[in-house]
Design a protein that fits this description.
With about 300 residues, the chain is mostly helical. It has eleven helices and two strands. It has a two-stranded antiparallel ribbon. Helix 7 packs across helix 9. It has one domain. The two termini are about 15 Å apart.
């Protein structure tokens, strides 16, 4: 994939006024989304312990806010009807308006997913620097919650568009989906391990159903290819294992919280924080562990590291 440059944006802009293909007017939005993604990578140097360690939570929040503002400006530049009332549904417009000024439904779906994927990527930084037993700050929890919320909306867009849309996806779109699944799972685990509540159970249930649906779609795409083993079959196995990993981790957190509450009650020292239960030993997984992003749900030796991000 080409790195962002002003020349690339100028070329994409020229295709808006003189398109050769139906998808040409959408290229400018793709290029600008790429610019925000590259700036996010440069700002946080994703994967670097050293740089993240130099930033306080307040500094991270300022940087996240600045990048999020750019994403909102990018969204505001999208064609009319790409979003409706701040949600991810496609506006139903008249056929004449759709034909004259709007990208295709497929391109609109890509733009919506790009928006939520960008927001998730920007807020991914909330996962870094958390150590075993460390209580996340309110600032860090806010970043993590926004990360989870963005990736869930991304996954909702995928589920709404259906299998027919996914048949024509590029490898970049499949990588983005896999990234969203891992990001939503990890942010959910940290949120739900830190503060166990009814919302945690609802998050786990929704993610479980989402992964079930995506596994079925991947298996169907595998059957359509008619191959003994394909990329889609491996994806289905990977996502099934991620679901099991997520649910087992959440269940351990719930069990640990129940035991902790019983112990505190017997000693008359139960800790209460705004009606939710806090776990002192919240984190079982270091985000910088080599299995954090790639292969953490693997059941087959050959699958480890298959999806480097």
């Amino acid at each position: 994939m080409l790195p962002y440059s002003q020349y690339l944006e100028d070329c994409a802009s020229s295709l808006v006024t003189d398109p050769q293909y139906s998808t040409d007017p959408t290229l400018i939005h793709m290029v600008r989304a790429m610019r925000v993604a590259e700036e996010t990578t440069h700002t946080f140097d994703h994967g670097s312990k050293e740089k993240i360690g130099e930033l306080s939570d307040d500094k991270i929040q300022i940087l996240v806010g600045a990048l999020s503002k750019q994403t909102e400006e990018w969204r505001a530049s999208l064609p009319p009807g790409a979003f409706t009332n701040g949600t991810h549904g496609i506006v139903q417009t008249s056929p004449s308006l759709q034909a004259s000024s709007l990208p295709s439904t497929r391109d609109l779906g890509w733009l919506q997913r790009a928006y939520y994927s960008s927001r998730g990527y920007i807020h991914e930084v909330g996962l870094y620097g958390l150590l075993h037993g460390q209580a996340p700050s309110v600032t860090r929890l806010s970043i993590l919650y926004d990360c989870f919320n963005a990736t869930v909306k991304y996954l909702s867009c995928v589920l709404e568009n259906g299998l027919d849309d996914m048949v024509d996806w590029t490898s970049l779109e499949w990588r983005a989906l896999n990234f969203a699944i891992m990001l939503s799972t990890k942010s959910s685990i940290i949120l739900d391990s830190a503060y166990v509540s009814m919302e945690a159970s609802q998050r786990a249930a929704w993610l479980g159903k989402c992964l079930d649906t995506l596994c079925v779609r991947a298996q169907e795409l595998h059957r359509m290819k008619g191959e003994k083993c394909s990329y889609f079959l491996k994806l289905a196995h990977e996502w099934a294992n991620i679901k099991m990993y997520h649910q087992n981790t959440i269940q351990r957190a719930l069990s640990a919280t129940t035991a902790q509450q019983q112990s505190h009650l017997s000693a008359q020292t139960q800790q209460q924080t705004a009606g939710v239960s806090f776990m002192d030993n919240a984190f079982d997984v270091d985000p910088f562990n080599e299995l954090f992003w790639a292969g953490f749900g693997d059941s087959e030796p050959g699958m480890t590291g298959m999806y480097p991000m």
